[in-house]
Amino acid sequence: MEGETYLERYLARCAAQLEEIKETSTDFSSVDLSFLPDELTQESKDQTVIRSQHKIEDNCKAQSHQNKLPLPGEQDAELGLKSGGLSNSNSHLHPSGADAVQPSPEKPDSSALSLVSITPMTPMTSVAECSGIVPQLQNIVSTVNLACKLDLKKIALHAKNAEYNPKRLAAVIMRIREPRTTALIFSSGKMVCTGARSEEQSRLAARKYARVVQKLGFPARFLDFKIQNMVGSCDVRFSIRLENLVLTHQQFSSYEPELFPGLIYRMIKPRIVLLIFVSGKVVLTGAKERSEIYEAFENIYPILKDFRKA
After folding, report:
1. What CA–CA distance (Å, rounded) separates 144 from 205?
2. Angle subtended at Cα 77 by Cα 76 and Cα 82, rounded to the nearest 5 degrees
């Protein structure tokens, strides 16, 4: 009889605990009945564990509810994305659910912004805008190796249109009329050809100079022909405010009107140097290929257009 009364008291106490749980929780599926002990001697210990578990569950639910609420700035960003017709991408970036966490807006890195502002960058031209002006090649400088030692005095005495002044320059200056070019011939066998207006003319002129040297009795060859520099020029047909241009692009331009009337603009890519004059004339130099001159002018043209005089 004593065992039965003790069991009845324990069951009544468990029923009271279940009533308390029902009053505090609205979701009956989440009620855990595993707290009932297997032995009657663990009554006080299990009651303490049950209370602590429910407190933890209530705290977790409150935190998850707070995480679901978006910040005011995030609500504006989400509305902007939806109005722009990006609902699909917005649903992918912001998934719905209890585990979804709204990302906080990141602040821009001030150090990265300072690096971007300091680093020189080549101005880019929009695809739709085209200048319609083609720079004309004015001079091409090329080099070639004749691969033999030369007697400069003999060349100067026997060749036509050749001059040699060792006190002034340690090379023979030779000229031909077609194509109209000038060559510097050194005793080491190296030769520099200047004055051609195209790549083909420069190669043809270098071959003619090498043939003249061969006819004078030297075993000259034609090796390592290479174009070292190309110079082009054009006219944009409007005046340019060079003072404002140098202030805006002072990272890679210089303008000293007391020393030189043109603005020197050093482009990064392609690596071209431009001489810009107030009259609208532009000289491009430093190219190894014809396409580099065309690309550099297309890059600089919209900038010159922005600084056009009214």
Report:
1. 11
2. 95
Could you report the per-residue pLDDT of 69-98, keeping only the tens digit for each? 444 444 444 444 444 443 444 444 344 444
Question: Rounded to an integer, what is the distance from CA 74 to the centroid of its chain?
Answer: 30
Task: State pLDDT tens for residues 138-189.
Answer: 999 999 999 999 999 999 999 999 999 999 999 999 999 999 999 999 999 9
